[in-house]
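Now for one specimen:
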Amino acid sequence: MTAVLVVLALAGCGQTVAAPSPVVTAEVRTDASCLEPDVLDALGLELDASLRTAAPEAATRGLPPEDFVADTALVCDRGETLRDSAGRWWAVTETRLEGDLSPLVGVVTRTPAACGVGVVAQVWLVDAMGAAVLLPRDAVCAGEEVEVALGDLEVVDRTERPVALAQPVTAQAPGS
């Protein structure tokens, strides 16, 4: 009877504790992109059908291989909305950062913290020859340490990329 009450009490807590996921080594790719399907999914976006011909294949996320030497970081985050003749688009901001990446690599290669329910920026590490690894979804959830490590890097490029048409332009009849 006591065991049943304990189980019922635990079931009523509403929180589940996930088992730690095994450490996976990331697939090394030559096409780091914020339009990668899993990156967009983590940002709560889906690539518009009109843009899917340029979409890269899904990458295997994980930690960088031991011999991987990161030269830059590509941070993908939800961007501002963009407007063109088709209408208003949701966008992704791609920010390329340079500098001493060792503090960032040190933080993200430790056991990642749980992110919770919010949208969290996604990070690629890129070497000097363009090879890249997509870090685990929760890699940047280690709080202030990651913010400091990213803040110490120099922004060398920032680009807004349209992702999904949020509000199409409606056609109006002539004279209306």
